[in-house]
Amino acid sequence: MSDHAFATRAIHAGQAPDPLTGAIIPPIYQASTHVQDGIGGFREGYEYNRAGNPTRSALETQLAALEGGASALSFASGLAAEDALLRGIVKPGDHVLLGNDVYGGTYRLLTKVLAPWGVETTTVELGDADEIRQALRPETKIVWLETPSNPLLKIVDIAATAEIAHAAGAVVVVDNTFASPALQRPLALGADLVVHSTTKYLGGHSDVLGGAVVFGDDRFYDQVKFQQFAVGAVSAPLDAWLTTRGIKTLAVRVRQHSENAQAIAEWAAARPEFETVFYPGLASHPGHEIAARQMSGFGGMLSLALAAGPDAARAFAESTELFQLAESLGGVESLIGYPPDMTHASVRGTALAVPENVVRLSVGIEDVADLIADLEQGLARVSV
Ligand SMILES: *Cc1c(COP(=O)(O)O)cnc(C)c1O
C-alpha cells in the first residue's frame, strides 16, 4: 500500500475482502478467544483477544499506513493510548517536556496519575527554541507536542522541535488528533511516535471512542504492546470496525471541514464582536507560515475570543443551534464549546488555563451558509 496516495491507503490498507466468503468488508471478529490447533497452534497468531483480534489488526494496519508508520496499536481511548505509550517508555525519575497548551487530559495524566509514580513534567512554550533548550534535562525522555493545539490552535514547527529534542536524546511524540494524518504526517517531519484520539476525526461520526499509537520504527513497539497486553485497554472489535469505517472517508471529510472552517474564520475575522480569531488558515495567524509548510490544509477547528468578555462567550456558546453545545470534536456535525468550563476545566488556574472569553468550534461538514447563519443568529441573541 505504501506506493499509493493517502486517500487510497485510507480505503484499502488492512481492508482486503474476507478470504472465506469474499465479503468486500472484512468481518467484525466479535470473539474473545481463538481455537488452537493443538497446544500453541495459533491460527494467524491469534489466541486471547487482549493480545490481538483480527478486526483490531485491520485497523492497526490502516492506521500505520495513514501515518506512514512501521506499525500501530489501537486502544479503547486516546488517553488509554497515551498512558500505554508513557508507561512503556518512561520510568520513575524520568522527565517529560510538554507544550504549554496540550490537551488537558494529557496534562492531567502526567501530573495527577504519573507524577505520584515519580515522573516529572514541565510545560514550555514550544514555539520558543531557547525555552525548550533550557527546560531539557539529562532525564528528559519525551518531548510531547500537539499542533495545532487545543483550543488556541498554536502551531509548533515539528521538524525544528524534533531536531532540538533529538540532540538532547529525547523521543518526540506528536498528538496528531487535531490535524489528522489527512493534513499532517509528523513521522515524516522527524517525530518518533504519533498518538491519536481516534474518537475525533479518524472515527469522524461521534459514535465511537478510541485511541492509537503509531510507531515510526521498531524501537518502542514491544514495550508499548506489552503495556497494552498487560493492562488491557484495547479497542473492542465493534469499536475498531467503526473506526475503520470512519477512516475510509477521512480524506473527503477533512477537505470539507477545512473549507468550511476557512470560510467561517474569514467571516468571523470581519465581525467586530470577535476580538481574535484563532485559525491557522488566516494569514494573520502567527503560525500561518509554518502551518502552510507542514500541513496540507488547516483543518476544521477554530476558536473565537469575544470582545465583550466571558459572559458573552458563555452566552454565545449557548445560543447556537446547528453548532450543538458539547465536548469533543472532529465529527461530521458542528459543535461549540466553552473550554474554561468544559474541555479545559481540569487546567483552570494552571499555566495551561484558557482565556475566559474564548469559545471553540468544531466545524462540521454541513452546508457552510447554514453554519454561518447559525453563528449570526447566535450573535444576535447575545447582542454583544
Ligand atoms: C480528545 C483528545 C485526547 C483524548 O482522547 P480520548 O479519546 O478522549 O481519550 C487526546 N488529545 C487530544 C488532542 C484530544 O482532542
TrEMBL record:
Q: Which cofactors must be present for this protein to function?
A: pyridoxal 5'-phosphate
Query: What protein does this entry describe?
Result: Cystathionine gamma-synthase
* SUPFAM superfamilies reported for this sequence: PLP-dependent transferases
Q: Which GO terms describe its molecular function?
A: cystathionine gamma-synthase activity
The domain of life for this entry's organism is: Bacteria
E.C. designation(s):
2.5.1.48
Q: Which Pfam families match?
A: Cys_Met_Meta_PP (PF01053)
**Transmembrane feature ranges:** none
UniProt keyword terms in alphabetical order: Pyridoxal phosphate, Transferase
Organism whose genome encodes this protein? Microbacterium murale
Record's family?
A: Belongs to the trans-sulfuration enzymes family.
UniProt-listed Gene3D superfamilies: Aspartate Aminotransferase, domain 1, Type I PLP-dependent aspartate aminotransferase-like (Major domain)
